[in-house]
Amino acid sequence: MFTHIDYYAGDPILGLMDKFVSDNNPHKVNLGIGIYYDEVGELPVLECVKTAERLIANPITPRPYLPMAGLLGHRVACQNLLFGAGSQVLQEDRVATIATLGGSGALKVGAEFIHQFFPQSKCYVSDPTWSNHIAIFEGCDIEVGSYPYYDNATSRLKFDEMLSFIKQLNKNDVVLLHPCCHNPTGVDLTPEQWDQVLKVMKQQQLIAFMDIAYQGFGEDMAQDAYAIRQAVAIGLPVFVSNSFSKNLSLYGERVGGLSVVCPTSDEAKRVFGQLNYTVRRIYTCPPSHGGHVVDIVMNDEELHQHWVNEVYAMRDRIKAMRLKLKSVLQTKLPERNFDYLTEQKGMFSFTGLTPKQIERLQSEYGVYLVSNSRMCMAGLNVSNVDYVAEAMARVLED
Ligand code: LMR
Fold first, then answer.
1. What is the pLDDT of residues 303-328, one digit of tens each?
2. Residues 108, 158, 246, 345: which is the catalytic one?
3. Straight-line distance from the first to the last Cα atom of the chain, in angstroms, rounded to the nearest whole number
4. 183 lines ligand 1 (CB under 6 A)
5. Ligand 1 nearest-atom number relative to CA 11
6. Distance CA 305, CA 65 (A)
7. CA distance linking residue 119 with residue 114, whole number of Å
8. Which of 14, 101, 130 to mutate to test ligand 1, by most ligand atoms within 8 A of the CB atom?
9. d(CA 35, CA 246)
């Protein structure tokens, strides 16, 4: 009956986690999956989340179904964060937002919607991108191509190639963009480069799909949303998938959002209705716990500020680790240039290590990187950074 079904090779990122857990090396370091670990290597529970959890637990309340679109407070929180509280587009009621099961859930619902209402559209992702982008869009029967992005030779952006490529796309094609902290390279566009890309997209009548999973880990909350707000300002149709996995450290709760910016409030109502229907056909409604945490933390002025400070503390610790790793490597291998480590932003750096070097890091040192050479800087801490630098230097030397 099931013999025609192929074995699943496993996910290139999630699969690494299992391998890491079963590794007996006492010095092992997990720099694979995009998870922020604190300075002692623990997954943190943010203080603002602890406060929200106490409020949710006392008293323990019934658990009805949520609306298909999730809690209003969760949706409003997404909108304020992405577009700016009180922004014109929100005042004009032109954004259809639903709460989703993390960023992946937002991408899935958005891709289903695009497949249904823009069946001719192809989707273009950066080369390289997060592997699940391709899987999700292809899983919705959308043809996926890629646009030039990262230059292996210089560890920088191939900006001119990217722009020329986008210039020749067809009306209603979707361009999937990372507004900040590009996954997997950590290489972002400057505001001026965003202006140029978005202008070309507007001229070509393209659709922007902005996937923002690391807001606050790059520059700050507003600056990290620059591309989104600028796209809105020039009247580009925009889909935004956002995730609270990293910036609320709520990975397992699956909390995110999907927002579609429309030209008019009537269109936003139509889109909102169809997004609800898409959700109904896949999972009916989101679970409630994470949504309540988001609602409480984001919509209380004091807790919100507390949260922002906690995110910036995570951001700053990652930056400090970038600096430290770079300086140790630079001392060990002075003939090589490690500037990319501090130029790249967010959780990830693209190290350019070869598959063989990555294999050696894993088998000889218990240091885990994704096979495309992505390193999660948020797994480094003062106790393991020297060890990781030493291991990297050894495999780079041979
Ligand atoms: C990552 O890129 O490591 C994270 O976004 C986790 C995931 O789902 O792949």
1. 999 999 999 999 999 999 999 999 99
2. 246
3. 50
4. yes
5. 9
6. 30
7. 7
8. 130
9. 7
Amino acid at 329: L
| DSSP letter string, 27-39 | T-EE-SS-----T
Task: Inform me whether the pLDDT recorded for 398 exceeds 90.
Answer: no
Is the torsion defined by CA of 160, 162, 168, 172 positive or negative? negative
Whether 194 is catalytic: no
Ligand 1 probe mutation, 37, 132, 242, most atoms within 8 A of CB: 132
Distance from C-alpha of 332 to C-alpha of 202, rounded to nearest angstrom: 48
Supply the pTM of this predicted model: 0.97
Helix (H, G, I), strand (E, B) or coil at 151: strand
Sheet holding 255-261, edge to edge: 95-101, 255-261, 238-243, 207-212, 174-177, 123-127, 144-148
Helical (H) or strand (E) element with 156: strand 156-157
Whole-number CA gyration radius for the chain: 21
Whether the CB of 226 sits within 6 Å of ligand 1: no
Report in angstroms the alpha-carbon separations of 63 from 59, 261, 295.
12, 31, 16
**How high does pLDDT run on average in the chain?**
97
Count the alpha carbons within 13 Å of 290 in the hemisphere toward its beta carbon: 22
CB–CB of 271/55 below 8 Å? no
Residues in the chain: 398
